[in-house]
From TrEMBL:
Descriptive protein name: PEP-CTERM sorting domain-containing protein
Highest taxon, organism lineage: Bacteria
Keywords carried by this UniProt record: Signal
Classification lineage: Bacteria, Pseudomonadati, Pseudomonadota, Betaproteobacteria, Burkholderiales
Pfam families reported in the protein's UniProt record: PEP-CTERM
Length: 253
């Protein structure tokens, strides 16, 4: 029964259609935020008659977004505590900053073969810290990552500080950094750190940043898949039908 030409043609046609049909529709959603960014001063020497103090010489923030989805692209940036967003068909990115929070997001409803969706928001506060003082800083970090069909995707939130000071006549540096990075699902963490001055003042900066990003590129496609795709099964089935038809003819002959 496998020898009828119409049966063979129909099988090959069906296999060809399955081979060109996508295995699934891809999409993605990523977000990251830092909220309730705050700091506290602690007196490390109660006998020196120095009141703990901090002076901010500069506060700055920046936001940046970029989308390249297929042949569509859009980008933008801003400085200061602002919000910005850009959209193309089937994709959106956004970023925003306030003195006590940062938030970014990226969403792709349809995954193109070439996709780059990136959103970043950051802030820096330069300071001068009094002697014998501990500067403690903290923030709540939250990240979300949903990924279907995107090769690289992540969201992250970072909080840190760097300070220069004079220690026994020698300049030194203290750097603290904490990052919550997410590649799947929802993750939250309370970020906390501190830097201390000695007998002299300290000069440094508090930094915070958030990033959400999708990357999809034809050049990143794997050369071989360890698990056969539906198209591979379809072509295999078609081949078996052809072999069965040939054997049927041989038996009749």
């Amino acid at each position: 029964m496998f020898s009828h030409p119409c049966t063979i043609a129909a099988a090959l046609f069906t296999a060809g259609m399955l081979a060109y049909a996508p295995a699934h529709a891809g999409h993605g959603k990523a977000s990251a935020s830092l909220s309730n960014i705050q700091f506290e001063l602690i007196d490390l020497d109660l006998t020196d008659n120095i009141t703990p103090s901090i002076t901010f010489s500069r506060k700055s923030a920046s936001e940046s977004v970029l989308i390249r989805s297929g042949s569509d692209n859009a980008q933008g940036s801003s400085s200061g505590f602002k919000s910005i967003s850009r959209s193309v068909p089937d994709a959106t990115v956004s970023a925003g900053a306030t003195p006590t929070s940062l938030q970014v997001g990226a969403q792709a409803d349809v995954v193109e073969a070439n996709l780059n969706a990136t959103a970043t928001a950051s802030q820096t506060m330069s300071f001068v810290l009094s002697p014998s003082t501990r500067l403690s800083f903290s923030a709540q970090a939250d990240t979300v990552l949903e990924n279907e069909g995107i090769m690289l995707a992540w969201s992250s939130a970072t909080l840190g500080a760097s300070m220069d000071m004079l220690i026994n006549g020698v300049f030194g540096n203290e750097t603290v950094s904490m990052t919550l990075r997410n590649t799947k699902g929802e993750r939250s963490r309370f970020l906390f750190g501190s830097v201390d001055t000695g007998a002299s003042i300290g000069r440094g900066s508090l930094t915070a940043s958030t990033t959400a990003r999708f990357i999809n590129a034809l050049s990143m496609a794997p050369l071989a898949s360890p698990v056969p795709e539906p198209a591979s099964y379809a072509m295999l089935a078609a081949g078996l039908l052809v072999i069965g038809a040939a054997r049927g003819k041989a038996r009749k002959a």
